[in-house]
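Marked as duplicate of an earlier ticket. Keeping the data here for the record.
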Amino acid sequence: MKYILKNIKAFVKTEKMIFLLIIMCIITSSFIINFSYGLYQNYHVLKEEEESELYEFNVLFNNSKDAFVSKKELKNAVLSFTDTLNESIDMYLVEPLCDEFMDTGFNRIVIRFSIKDGNIMPCDVFESNMKEYDTLISGRYFSDEEEKHGERVALVFDDIGKNESFTESLMIDDDTIQFQGNKFKIIGIQKIHPLIVPFNSLEDDTPINNILFSFKKPITRSFYDEIKNVLISNFGNLANVPDIDIPEAENYYLYNTIILISIMIAFLAAINFAILYKYILSKRTKSLAIFRICGCTKAKVRAMFISECMIIAVPLFAATTLIYDKFVLPKLGRHFEYIESAYSIKLYLLIFGIYIATTLVVLLFMISGFLKKTIRETKEEK
């Protein structure tokens, strides 16, 4: 160990540029190997998730008189979703339980909304469909401000003037209805539902029967898990979240391919390291000859040179990996959605082991070849 540390000290002192290049080689290798794995994982998760055909799923609430999911509680729950999740959902559909519908032919009211910038907003998709299929007979849909602030406006059903008109049972004058004890201004007439009002206009204690999530793209495992975790944590057994067939993320790791890629990159990095170190060894031929004269075997010389490399490479590679995990990876996570979930302590140890093992093999062949050549040339000179 004494001679190994002396050699490293002399190396740093006499060959500063080469030593710096070796350091840069190891640091670069660590970053490239770790990043290549995460990037490959991120790509395959996205690829597999896009192949799913499930765009929506419905969650029922097991309400009772004593325990139920209220409008206020559900609102707080959906607003706690991440921005990424809310941006991926183009429509939330809920069925509130309202007294006005209990003794009528209409057994439910359906309300749709979306979430933008942390606020409940009108559902643009539903509004577009109403216009496209001519279900909005007259008037207009809610504005952003009306939904955001829960203004009491309503789209009533086109049954005015008919027998047992539900709309007329709510009307208190030509442009106003009374719903949940509050006055709502009629802004439009439609032929889909008995009544459509802004979600935010409902009373906070209104029970919610269910909520349907409609996604812009196929549902991903991470989005499903987030919804499930939020609903269960907020409502416990009241939330009946269905199991849906989305493959687990572990199926996307493709360990064999990843290991092959890591080995290839580690092999190229080890070659670069070996080439630089060979330059140092070429300047130690006299020292090597002295070691041999003093009885140092080839095995001991080989072990000494490899130990020098490992003392430099192992802590540097480990430190670079730690920096990558703590500082670089969180920034990469902003651009690559699934890259952070690709890593674990076990994975880092595997990548580290692949790099060290590959470096050892390459250095062993290089040093053995160098020793053989140097010893042969020394004998020829004699």
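See parent ticket for discussion. Residues 249-253 have pLDDT under 50 and may be disordered.
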